[in-house]
User: Fold this.
Amino acid sequence: MSDLARPALSVVAPCYNEQDALPEFLRRVGAVLDSLGGSSEIVLVDDGSRDRTWDAMTVAAAADPRIVAVRLMRNHGHQLALTAGLSVCRGERILIIDADLQDPPELLPDMMALMDGADGKAGADVVYGQRRQRDGESLFKRASAAAFYRLINRLTDVDIPTDAGDFRLVSRRVLDLLLAMPERHRFIRGMVAWIGGRQVPLLYDRHARVAGESKYPLSKMVRFAADAITAFSVVPLMASMTIGWVMAAVGFGFFIYSMIGWFMNANLPGWTSIMAALGLLGGMQFLMLGIIGAYLGRLYDQSKGRPLFMIRDIVSGPK
Ligand code: UDP
Ligand code: MG
Assistant:
């Protein structure tokens, strides 16, 4: 596809049972796009909804040439539905947004300006929304999110921004790098952070949903967190190595201790051999588990098939 055919901007929104939110979403996004001017498209992904979301999408698409409606075969979950939309969209810049209007589309002009880097400031590859305040979210959701981001940032060397969802504006270059990662368990905000480049936050207040209810019950949130941690860290797998060294040292200590007791005739008959074997075997087993973990971790990293490096610029002298 020639780059000339690309719209300047794509808005990509995954939708699961969003029939009630969709009209208002399209009205507000449409108004923002009108005010911005320039070519644009709105890619809506129906993630196997069980309500009338698809009908609402096709009706809207018939009335607005900017709308591209995509329907998945079944429910794939937020991150994969978003990935489907991202692979279909063609824009030079891409706004990732939820259909429930928790994240205001009216921030788009500010995000565009930050990406342009006006008034002598450097432009950005990614502008991500960072929540200043979260309306309509329980204390539990906020506390668990805070704990989760603290944990994942300790376990990985990727700086995953706290209080940020997937609401962000990304450049085509970043999107192409993201789409080049074939991994199945996708934690998109982390993968975008992993890509690097200049990523700048835009502070905003997150609102309550306009309609419907959250599709992220606790069970899905826990699974999402597990996906995120395992996709970005093999530390849990390697933990058996650390435990292994400690256990091996303790086991060896026990071995020495029981041997000394045996030489001094202070042990019950049989105790020495049992303790010695227990200490040595226990330690060795954990150490071996750790070694297996180390290899498995590397195998896992390899199997994710991420690019080895990502070149930002190459400059050469005059020919
Ligand atoms: N979503 C989806 N597939 C799913 C679950 C959610 O496409 O299986 C969409 C949903 O329609 C919304 C976005 O992902 O546009 C975020 O979901 P939700 O608002 O329920 O999550 P929350 O904001 O409560 O974390
Ligand atoms: Mg939401």
In short: The beta strands are 9-15, 40-46, 67-71, 93-96, 126-134, 168-171, 199-206. The mean pLDDT is 91. The chain has two domains: 7-220+312-316, 235-303. The chain is about 50% helix and 15% strand.
